[in-house]
Amino acid sequence: MIPNLAQLAERARTSAERPALFTAGRVIDYGELARRVDATERGLEALGVGSGDVVAVLLENGLAFAEILHAVAQRGATLMPLNTRLKPRELAFQLEESGTRVLIHGAGPLADLAAESVALVDPGRSLDRFEVESDQWPALASTAAARDEMRAERPPIDPARTLALVYTSGTTGSPKGALLSHRSLFWNAIGSAVHLGVMPEDRWLVCMPLFHVGGLSILLRAALYGSAAILHERFDPENVNRALDDEGVTLVSLVPTMLERVLAARGGRRAPRSLRCVLLGGGPAPRGLIERARSQGFPIAATYGLTEAASQVATQLPTLAKSAGASGLRPIFGTQLDTIDDDGKAVRGRPGEILVRGPTLMDGYWNRRAESERALRGGWLHTGDIGVLDATGALEVLDRRRDLIISGGENIYPSEVERVLLEHPAVLEAAVGGRADADYGRRPVAQLVAAAGKQLDPAEIRRFCAERLAGYKIPVEFAVVDELPRNATGKLMRERIS
Q: What fold does the segment set 235-400 form as a domain?
């Protein structure tokens, strides 16, 4: 098999009647999906989209997004998924820097957002936009005859061609566009399959946004494996629980805040037997949350992933996913890990910067040569994340290097302090940052969101921390807030906590 992800026509030939997508109350099999994608590709061709052109998509999760993703892959073009939560100026930056040829967007508020964003792009640029629910969009206006007529053959896609241009969330500085080739996304899918296994009746619930590499990669994997994806327009804990209980979900990807809301909505009901793995990413999770989920039968497998590595990098083994004592993330097939100190020397058993090497890595950042060379020097992706790699090769992720607080010469990892704070029954959410201090350099401070019906007493929180943390790790201030500062993808912006 050629290592690319323009494989939908082949999947339709071998598995035409197998379900591909469950979305908006519909079941789309691989035969129908392939015909719809072929029609969408013809639509892109009619718009003048050729090999290598950038097609930006501003859509909620749904069938149209899936059709365009696969059509762009078949066309040899590049998909740029846009975060629907960004502001016009932020979207305009990505559209202009990437040289986007066509912007495809949804109706209503998304159409307004698209129009405002395009208006801020250099008027000298050639950029067309189309609404998927409008007759202006040729693919969705295709006749039934065109849909039924599949192209018999198409030229092979070069595995090195860029399939997705995915912008990082930009918690500091300007976002950067990671160039992900067919090859890198293909090998991430293969590595994940070897690590997690692939079952004939697998159904992967997609409730995270498709503009995120974690959501996007699931659709691509499913088509490669011939399994099904259950696609939710957006995350809703009640809908997630309904799908878990009634729709045969076998795998789902969540972040800690999503898992917390799912468990709260379940009211103590145990996980269904069909669920074989819950990938929990998006940063270190509170120990109490994982233990509570596992006590209800949720097979939690902590995972570490990066946009720059096409999603999954290292994950707990599924065989240990129900074990209360399970720890240590193992690299997926084909991926190597290392940790280095500030002098660039390999370290084991103590914190160091996490390095990643393997076929899943990006080709670099779009139009950022110096930053690409710095990130990929020596053939390794220098992640900027801090972790501990033990003698057996198991990884524990601690924090982002930029979030590290050095106080009086001691290293403080905010995520460690946050995990302790989240063990307190009155704390719903917690975030820790560093404040400048004349004597210590920086001191830790915390922002807390109270759990429903609970009151937060800073003095009580301080006593709670003193029983569990060294004195230098205890925040010097506990501020109670309504919500924590997060960026458009929901990641904590610790630099705003001071």
A: Rossmann fold (3.40.50)
